[in-house]
Amino acid sequence: MKNETLAFIYSGRQQRRRRFAAVTILLGLLTAGLCCAMLLLGNTLYPVATVIEALRGETIKGATFAVKTIRLPRMCAGLFAGFSFGIAGSVFQTMLRNPLANPNIIGITSGSSAGAVFCIVLLHTNAATVYFASIASGLAAALVMFLLVNGGKFSNARLILVGIGVQAMLSAVVNYVLLKGSERDIPTAMRWLSGSLNGTWMTELYPLFIGVWTLTPVVLIYTKRLSMLELGEEAAATMGVNTSKTRAALMIGAVLLSSMATAATGPIAFVSFLAGPIAKRLVGYGNTNPLPAGLFGAALTLAADLLGQFAFETRFPVGVITGLLGAPYLILLLIRMNRTGAF
Question: For the chain, which terminus, N or C, has the lower number of CB atoms within 10 Å?
Answer without folding.
Answer: N
